[in-house]
Amino acid sequence: MSGAEAASGAGTVSQAGRRAGERGGAGRAPGGGRVGPAARFTVLVLLAVVFLLPLYVLVVTGFKPFAEAGAGRAWLPPQTWSLEGWSAAWDALGAGLWNSVKLVVPSAAAAALLGSLNGYVLSKWRFPGADTVFTLFLFGMFIPYQAVMIPLQQMLVGAGLMGGLFPLILAHTVYGIPICTLIFRNYYASLPQTLIEAARVDGAGLLRTYAHVVLPVSAPAFAVALIWQVTSAWNDFLFAVFLTGPGSWPVTVQLNNVAGSMVVPYNQQMAAAVLASLPTLVIYLVLGRYFMRGLMAGALKG
Amino acid sequence: MSARTPGRAGAPARRRRPAGRARVRAWLPGLLLISPSILLIAVFVYGMIGWNARLALSDKHKPIDDAAFVGLENMAALWQEARWPGAVANAAVFTVVFVGGALVLGWLLGLLLEKGIAGEAVFRTLFLAPMAVSFIATGVVWRWLMNPAPAERATGLNALFVHFGLDFLVNEWWTAPNLGMAAMALPAVWQLSGYIMALYLAGFRGVPEELREAARVDGASEWGVYRHVVLPQLRPVTLTAVIILGHMSLKVFDLVIAIAGQQIVADVPAVYMWTTVFEVRDPAKGAAIAAYMLLAVAALVLPYLVWTVRRERSEGR
Q1: Is there a single domain that holds both residue B292 and residue B230?
Q2: What is the ipTM of this complex?
Q3: What's the CA gap between A196 and B105, in Å, rounded?
Q4: What is the CA A112 to chain-centroid distance, rounded?
Q5: Confidence (pTM)
Q6: Sign of CA pseudo-dihedral A257, A260, A261, A263
Q7: What domain range is B228 assigned to?
Q8: Gene3D superfamilies from the xrefs (chain A) (predicted)?
């Protein structure tokens, strides 16, 4: 997980080394390592089992045929493995999955681009009041979106923009600006100011410096911002239920419709939940360290 | 990079007002570049908050009504009815269990992992994975797990408890009248404690080894080192974690919808607001609920934000 993670990893190794050395030297120091690694490992494994219970339920129930998906054999693996739940879930969610892709891609790209420009200005081309502007941006990241939802709806209806995916793309772009700005500002703050100064002395203006000096080194921050935006827009439910209608429901709304109706069997519900979660889970597993950095930024822990 | 163009960097050459104009020329382009975003945030965050406040203070109780100013009438009226105080009480129970639970579990996971252990990366990845999933998907599984049906028909944890002879643990989960929201908080704890673990893990590892070593040399036991050296250093992490969890808790919506729908037993302000807008169709009342949610989050988050940005600036970042 990034440089910090690598550093702390190295710290762990050297700590462990030092602790081992200390034990060897001081003998059985009283109280030293009262909770041994074996005990810690055991507790961790137990907790991991508890954490994995929902995953077990999802997969096992998803593969059951309809007849087995009831209460009787709830925790047992399927007697016959079946894809019936998966194909039903695919039929129910297909349109929603596609809608989610169509809204997530443009809104993540737009928010990341704006965030990059903002972060650049707020860290390297500061103007009077830049900190106040930044704080005002940041607050936009924490607000309950309910507090803007009714006016937003009214405005979109008034402007004739309701319908289709546009309202959602707009919302995820605009309300993604704060976190993206934060991610890029923190990242650019670590670039040496001399790099910018050198470009300035060479006569490069604001945009040229951005395009030739800053942008080429921005890939990691773009990865963090894009992953954050994709994940949060994909998983969003609140904006989706307020701003879209049946034809353009993203996957979370369709999943809730599938699961919320009492007539849908469990095998299909669980398969649907897995399908809806797979894209973000895969991103997390493949690009975990960028995901992690987004989380840290979200806690203002740059 | 471009070749040197002497004329462009010529600000210092203007000797008349060397400071002022040169400085404005230095920052103005930046302000212009960021201005589209400033405009968007001004309109979509602060403008809409203001608009919502005006609605909340108006008598626009039907979408087609005109809005006349009625002061705090709607804000006060909420407390006179039966549903709103119940929703607030539910949110309070949820907050206590969710924030407390995720904090303790996240801290414990961080503590167990901080000295390094076999398979650390696997544990970390596993505990953090729920963060990548939507509350809706989480809700689907946990509704199955927390199925309140009696043992013979139950799925989920109740069935598991019966199977292992732990019948006394069988319970009604989120459908329990008073403390049902404590059960509702369990999936949220499951989902967020990995995040808190990551925050604490970074915090633990940020404590310089020299400090611990010094305490050991002074004769502190390993527990003493934690008690007097490491844990006090983690207070800022705890503050951050409380702010993050607290503001999420005040806004909780998706999870409740996915598990309980709009049942009153699990009502919270965000769900009530949704019902008010979509079913009751009362914009003024919906806006009043939203205003209360905003006030609660602002009271929690604003001091922290201002403090964070100031401290960061004073550290010269």
Answers
A1: yes
A2: 0.88
A3: 44
A4: 14
A5: 0.88
A6: positive
A7: 80-314
A8: MetI-like
Mutate to test the interface with A, among B4, B46, B48, B207 (most CBs of A within 10 A): B48
Question: For residues B198, B204, B207 and B210, what is the CA-based torsion angle, rounded to 10 degrees?
Answer: -130
**A86-298: which CATH number, 1.10.10.10, 3.40.1190.20, 3.40.630.10, 1.10.3720.10?**
1.10.3720.10
pLDDT (tens digit, 0 to 9) for every residue of chain B, 317 residues total? 344 444 444 444 444 455 677 777 788 999 999 999 999 999 999 999 999 999 999 999 998 888 899 999 999 999 999 999 999 999 999 999 999 999 999 999 999 999 888 899 999 999 999 999 999 999 999 999 998 887 667 778 988 888 888 888 888 899 988 889 999 999 999 999 999 999 999 999 988 889 888 998 988 888 888 888 898 889 999 999 999 999 999 999 999 999 999 999 999 999 999 999 999 999 999 999 999 999 999 999 999 998 888 887 787 65
Q: Domains in chain B: how many in total? A: 2
CATH number of the CATH domain containing B242:
1.10.3720.10
A273: chain B residues, CB-CB within 8 Å: 136-137, 140-141
Give the distance from residue B301's alpha carbon to the nearest chain A alpha carbon, in angstroms.
7
DSSP A117-174: HHHHHHHHS--TTHHHHHHHHHHHHHS-THHHHHHHHHHHHHTT--SSSHHHHHHHHH
A75 at B interface, C-beta within 8 A? yes
By Cβ distance, the residue of B141, B254, B283 closest to A237 is: B254
Asked if A159 is an interface residue toward chain B (Cβ–Cβ < 8 A), one would say no
B6 domain-assigned: no
